[in-house]
Amino acid sequence: MHLAYPAVLAALLFCVGVYGVLARRNVVLVLMSVELMLNAVNLNLVAFDVWLRDTLHAGQALTLFTITVAAAEIGLGLAVVLLVFRTRGTADIDRVTALGDPAEAAAAETAAAELKGQAAA
User: Fold this and answer.
1) Residues 93-121 pLDDT 10s
2) Rounded Cα distance, 16 and 22, in Å
3) With CB atoms counted within 10 Å of each terminal CB, which end of the chain scores lower, N or C?
4) What is the residue-wise DSSP string for the chain?
5) pTM listed for this prediction
């Protein structure tokens, strides 16, 4: 098996994942892009494990560990996204900037704008 084929495929998957993280504004799509990047890493781990003919199969063991971490990450991430969506009514990254109460966040933004105006004067 040539190593170039899975390596190129993994690089393309990783690039698509990076584009999804940087360009998307929906939190769920960002989480899906992170999962795509993790799957590209898993593909590389398995491909190099097969190519090196490792007797311990360390690449496959690391892949199982990565899949476990990814499952935990997506579970916690979706729980946080659902909680934010229930309280704020949106899953847009640009609109979800503060982690506190939306009323307190608005008050903090107005106070920061006032301080900025006083500093300019």
Assistant:
1) 877 766 666 667 677 778 878 887 777 76
2) 10
3) C
4) --SHHHHHHHHHHHHHHHHHHHH--BHHHHHHHHHHHHHHHHHHHHHHHHHHT-SS-HHHHHHHHHHHHHHHHHHHHHHHHHHHHHHHS--BTTT---SS-HHHHHHHHHHHHHHHHHHH-
5) 0.75
